[in-house]
Write a structure and sequence with these properties.
Largest sheet: 5 strands, mixed
Structural class: alpha+beta
Strand content: 5-15%
Number of domains: 1
Mean pLDDT: 95
CATH architecture: Orthogonal Bundle
Low-confidence stretches: 387-392
Protein name: Putative Cytochrome
Bound molecules: protoporphyrin IX containing FE
Number of strands: 10
Oligomer: single chain
Family: Belongs to the cytochrome P450 family.
Pfam families: p450
Number of helices: 16
Radius of gyration: 21 Å
Strand order of the largest sheet: 1-2-8-5-3
GO molecular function, one term: iron ion binding
């Protein structure tokens, strides 16, 4: 497990070649590593379901969360809230992320180094996602609270034993979110507004269950809260890739128009979500492996992104690669990330503001991303030599 957490990519490469659907005891699931198989699993809900009421996601977020739903209830939630996350909203999201980023960078202006994860990427990500979801209008929810909730939930979701300190924190966050959000949701039931929270609470639900709106909204918002730092992780992983590939960073400095290519390549090469989860709905064969009904399967999206069958020279971080294939980092099919269009917009806003303000950024320590299910940097210590260029 240690090797998988430290650097899963050599292991993924071996599995793709030798055992593309492999039982990994430490993961407790069949790990799927080839591009074609991962795509097949994600786009075949009749054979591979997200519904798993015993999963940590259901335990800590609530089983009515959107990701745990299939069929009509899932479609109703996506329909209710989908408009807020369309491609057309991306420019407004980038602009908002840039304004949040400018304020955060202003706080760093009289410094010459910082830990960009704690002091920049995560706060920009959390604040922008909070605005996007309408959580910034809820009494008692500020950036620090949302960050604490997100951290507690992520730890609990990463803990298949559902025991120990992560369990205690996960259960406490779940309860705190219930107490904080319920009065706001009750108000929105009577007085709808144009926020995603309002759209969620009014999503069409089962006729015989009047409490469904509030319950599924609480569960879905907990699930989304676990994700509010992820755009920051992606921005950190992408910047780290650029700083450790100086020729790529030079190309970007020479042509800032390459930033969207850098974000695309960061999403592919440095995916912050490495694998997702499914249960088989019936006995079937996947990648030559017979699986019974109810078998836990982990589609390895980060592995698929490094499959030569989909991306030539897949292990190379290369801004100039042809963008003909969409990486799987934001999922695919019915459960594709709700924020798939806005995540690149947040990352682009945060990176553009940073690189314009501090063009001479450099790494101050040899840090590396860690983790396989979630892969991110704990710290990103950087300095900026040329403070006059900071415009401070
Ligand atoms: C870099 C950032 C992010 C990444 C890499 C990411 C990745 C993913 C992936 C891979 C899935 C598919 C899960 C599956 O198929 O089992 C997913 C689903 C989802 N994501 Fe994200 N996500 C990110 C950020 C966010 C944010 C900021 C939000 C909310 C504001 C969000 C909301 C959702 C929701 C609601 C789903 C479930 C969709 C459904 O079941 O229909 N994600 N995400």
């Amino acid at each position: 497990m240690g090797r998988l957490e430290a650097d899963p990519y050599p292991i993924y490469g071996r599995l793709r070649a030798e055992e593309p659907v492999a039982w990994v005891p430490a993961v407790g699931a069949w790990l799927v590593t080839r591009w074609d198989d991962v795509r097949h699993v994600l786009t075949s809900p009749e054979s591979y379901t997200t519904t798993n009421d015993a999963s940590p996601l259901s335990t800590y977020c609530g089983s009515q969360n959107v990701l745990n739903q299939e069929g009509d209830r899932h479609a109703a939630i996506r329909k209710a809230v989908g408009d807020r996350f369309r491609q057309e909203t991306a420019p407004a999201v980038t602009a908002h992320a840039r304004s949040v980023a400018a304020r955060r960078l202003g706080d760093l202006a009289d410094r010459d180094h910082a830990d960009l994860m704690a002091e920049y990427f995560e706060p920009v990500s959390v604040e922008t996602a909070s605005w996007l979801l309408g959580l910034d209008a809820v009494d008692g929810v500020d950036t620090a609270t949302l960050t604490r909730w997100s951290t507690g939930l992520t730890a609990a979701l990463y803990n298949p034993t559902k025991a120990g300190a992560a369990h205690v924190t996960g259960a406490a966050v779940s309860g705190a979110m219930d107490r904080t959000l319920t009065p706001h949701l009750a108000r929105l039931l009577d007085q709808p507004d144009d926020s995603p929270l309002s759209a969620l609470v009014h999503a069409a639900g089962p006729a015989d269950d009047a409490s469904w709106g509030v319950h599924q909204t609480l569960a879905t918002v907990r699930m989304m809260t676990s994700a509010v730092r992820e755009p920051g992780w992606l921005a950190g992983n992408t910047l780290h890739a650029l700083l450790t590939h100086p020729e790529q960073m030079d190309a970007l400095r020479a042509d800032p128009g390459l930033l969207d290519a850098a974000v695309y390549e960061g999403i592919r090469w440095a995916a912050p979500v490495g694998a997702v989860g499914r249960l088989t709905t019936k006995p079937l064969v996947l990648g030559g492996q017979e699986l019974p009904a109810g078998a836990p399967v982990a589609p390895g999206i980060a592995s698929a992104n490094r499959d030569e069958a989909a991306f030539p020279a897949a292990d190379r971080f290369d801004l100039l690669r042809a963008r003909t294939t969409t990486p799987l980092s934001l999922g695919l099919g019915r459960h594709e990330c709700l924020a798939a269009h806005v995540v690149p917009a947040i990352v682009e806003g945060a990176l553009r503001q940073l690189l314009e303000r501090f063009p001479e950024l450099h790494l101050e320590q040899d840090v590396r991303p860690y983790g396989w299910k979630f892969r991110k940097l704990d710290t990103l210590p950087v300095g900026w030599r040329d403070r006059s260029a900071a415009g401070a």
